[in-house]
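Q: What structure does this chain adopt?
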Amino acid sequence: MSQHNLLYDAADEFGPIRVFDDGQYRILSFADGDEQSRIRLSTPHVLQHEYTQAMMLALLFCQPKRVCILGLGGGTLIHALYHAVPSVQISAVELRADVLDAAELFFKLPRGKRIQLTLDNAIDHVEQGLDKKVDLLMTDIYNTHGMDIHVLAPSFIENCAKNIKETGWLVLNCWIDQKHNDDFTQCLKEHFRSVSALDTGSGNWVILAGKQKPDHTAKELKTMAQKLSNTLGFSLNKWLTRLTEL
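A:
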């Protein structure tokens, strides 16, 4: 990222936290060559990373009033949800104080009563229980070394399910090597009636798990995706065509 200007340079016990800017994009990085988050400064609500775009498929299956995001990063998921879903209440849980500070200072996070940011260990936070059950729970828990392996623990999946409404959904961003993790898939099926996933083609395996089976036809989902794409600013159908039931 030598062509980018360094705006923020911090470090904690988990590693470096840096923010870069080239005048058009702003990037949060946890390691050399790493992009944890990216926004286009002119349209921060339009998701730039493919896996975050794929995670928005959940909006086809539920119209959330309350969302919890585990792992804030630069807050790109907050941007997209706040823009796309009127009146949605969004909470985000972030472990690292410097990451939360960087997101607030440099990534144009929406502010107001609809947004709540909490500094805490997301795994423990879910175990202790959310203040209220949510319609949509999204996990994007990564650090300098990659995905937090605690996300794969049966206890974590069980705790997530306990905090999701009976019509709600869980969205997990995992590495592609979990694609053939049959034990993990079976664990998800023990708590969710619908479990689907897709390969983004960029190293991520995005899982959508619902408490209830979707009742839309393929044609209806395609139409809904086209309409929602206009609001999100990218093609959702691209990811819908890759979504496969497990």
